[in-house]
Specification:
about 60 residues
Length: about 60
């Protein structure tokens, strides 16, 4: 599937945030902040899927 530049920018932004949250949750696994980061990473992954799916539906270059 060929995607546009905006798709890549959006995906990279979400993936960067997910990586930061996942790293934090690994470093602080036994603390409440680590558990919150793990949940936030999962939520962010779901948001990324919705945003990219929506983008593909709207973008003439991707869709």
């Amino acid at each position: 599937m060929k995607t546009c530049r905006q798709f890549a920018i959006t995906r990279n932004g979400y993936e960067r945030e997910i990586q930061i949250l996942s790293s934090h949750s690994e470093r602080h696994a036994d603390k409440p902040s680590g558990k919150a980061s793990a949940k936030r990473a999962i939520t962010t992954r779901e948001q990324m899927a919705r945003a990219l799916s929506s983008h593909v539906g709207r973008c003439p270059e991707c869709g």
